[in-house]
Amino acid sequence: MGDGTVGETLGKICAQYGLNYRVDVDGTVLLELAKGKSSEALVEKVYWLKPGSLSGDGPADKILAAQGIDFPPGATARWQAGEGN
User: Fold this and answer.
1) Is there a domain that residue 10 lies in?
2) How far apart are alpha carbons 70 and 49 in whole angstroms?
3) Is residue 28 part of a domain?
4) pLDDT tens string 48-65
């Protein structure tokens, strides 16, 4: 996204995430949810698990979904082993 002006880049980011932007009187760039858009696309959930708390092989989203953690369409999950250690 570095092939344009700051405004063009902000426009691309906003289009991708359902946002609008405006520049406040003091020059601060404000990102706002576009009308009719859901903020669910902007949510990140993090789960801290003790080593060995889940067993099983396979994709993270499948293992966690089996434990009752929902994944809406388009959601992803990935293991970050060792994070926070």
Assistant:
1) yes
2) 16
3) yes
4) 667 776 666 777 777 777
